[in-house]
Write a structure and sequence with these properties.
Elements lengths: L3 E7 L16 E2 L2 E2 H10 L4 E8 L4 H11 L4 E6 L4 H11 L4 E6 L7 H14 L1 E7 L4 E5 L2 E6 L5 E10 H14 L6 H7 L5 E4 L10 H12 L6 E13 L4 E3 L2 E3 L4 E2 L7 H13 L5 H4 L12 H14 L2 E11 L9 H12 L6 E6 L5 H4 L3 E12 L1
Parallel strand pairs: 1-4, 1-6, 4-5, 7-11, 16-17
Antiparallel strand pairs: 2-3, 6-10, 7-10, 8-9, 12-15, 12-18, 13-14, 16-18
Helix pairs in contact: 5-6, 8-10, 10-11
């Protein structure tokens, strides 16, 4: 099969969604809409490269997202233009494939099968659009008055991907700009050349997330349901203070007179979180997966262990919804370190920092933590089916 370049248009403001940010970065079912869309193209063998087109202010965020989720096929992130047509033109300049599939980032429920059929059809015919037959009765109206009922037998609701031989879509764009012509979709530019555009049957699930109700539909479709696919686990860990060791909490080195005793770096926060996540997935605890009798784990960073826990639960079909941890000690105070802890934990779990909560409390000088003998941590982790 011909390897294609996928252009993912993610430069829209998304004002109708009402979230105040580019809708491609709005989270649904545990990760940004753009990440859901990229995951499908990443897993499609017919796609050789992915180019993200987004607004100038969002280029850095797009790069961070690509790194966080490990999208290896993303070869470039380019700035969009004033209108969608201008944005796609910028993406075309960066594309290297003989076939170009242009897709809206806000259509995260596209399938690998639809992408592959579109690429095959474009290689055969030159141009094609994904589309579904119109179901509703269509009326033509002038103001408040119905003029006529339109025959819907030949009407289609057009989606993306819209896929083309690269030379054809570039030629169509050159003609459009030479004529000062703008269209609402890419296929219309090819139609102006007099070339045939084929229809590939799309999916009624392949909606474009535009309104809050669309977002709710995407949440259900991508999340696979709610409570029946959600699990909660509890983790608890304790470590005593020890001299001549660094104090690591939440993946961050804390300035303090003592560290914590343990086989690894004794990060009590990450251990509690790891146990909570493993417990939610019914996969045992960190002692089972990383026994302190194994010299391979001596002095190891607990961030590495937490990343491995994330891999383990992902292999079992789960992903992290959120984490909430409470650090229990009289000293040291952790409040100034919390933002960095959230960042480090989020990175290890491939999650957004706003899904990670870290709090500190004391026991009013009661018990071993109150006497300053060590630190305890309680954590709750929530998972959902990936």
């Amino acid at each position: 099969m011909t390897k294609a370049s996928a252009l993912i248009a993610a430069a829209g403001a998304g004002e109708r969604l009402g979230k105040g940010i580019n809708k491609a970065f709005v989270e649904v079912a545990g990760k940004p809409i753009l990440a859901h869309t990229l995951s499908v193209f990443e897993s499609c063998k017919a796609v050789g490269e992915i180019i993200i087109i987004t607004g100038e202010p969002d280029i850095e965020a797009a790069g961070e997202l690509v790194g966080r989720f490990g999208f290896s096929k993303v070869s470039g992130i380019v700035a969009g233009g004033v209108q969608r047509q201008d944005s796609v033109r910028n993406g075309l300049d960066a594309a290297t494939g003989d076939i170009v599939a242009i897709h809206d980032a806000a259509r995260p429920m596209v399938t690998v099968e639809l992408i592959e059929r579109s690429i095959e059809k474009a290689a055969e015919m030159g141009a094609c659009v994904a589309a579904v037959p119109v179901i509703d009765t269509i009326k033509s109206a002038r103001g408040d008055d119905v003029v006529s009922t339109v025959d819907r037998s030949e009407l289609y609701s057009v989606q993306t991907p819209q896929t083309f031989r690269a030379e054809l879509i570039r030629r169509a764009y050159e003609r459009a700009y030479a004529d000062g012509y703008y269209a609402t979709d890419d296929a219309a530019l090819v139609e102006r050349l007099g070339d045939r555009v084929a229809v590939v049957v799309g999916s009624y699930d392949n909606i474009k997330v535009t309104t809050p109700s669309d977002l709710e539909i995407a949440q259900v479709k991508l999340g696979g349901g709610f409570m029946d696919e959600t699990r909660v686990g509890i983790g608890f860990d304790v470590h005593a203070f020890a001299e001549n060791r660094k104090l690591m909490l939440g993946g961050v080195e804390i300035e303090y007179e003592s560290g914590l005793a343990g086989h690894s770096d004794a990060d009590v926060v990450l251990h509690a979180i790891a146990d909570a996540l493993l417990g939610a997935a019914a996969l045992g605890d960190i002692g089972r997966h990383f026994p302190d009798s194994d010299p391979a784990y001596k002095g190891i960073s607990s961030l590495n262990l937490l990343s491995e826990v994330n891999h383990i639960i992902a292999q079992a079909g789960w992903c992290v919804v959120n984490v909430d941890a409470t650090v229990i000690c009289e000293r040291p105070k952790i409040s100034t370190y919390v933002p960095e802890m959230r960042q480090m934990i989020a990175r290890a779990l491939n999650a957004s920092p706003d899904r990670i909560s870290i709090k500190g409390t004391t026991t009013e000088r009661l018990g071993f933590t109150g006497r300053g003998e060590g630190i305890a941590c309680q954590a709750v982790g929530t998972l959902r089916k990936a």
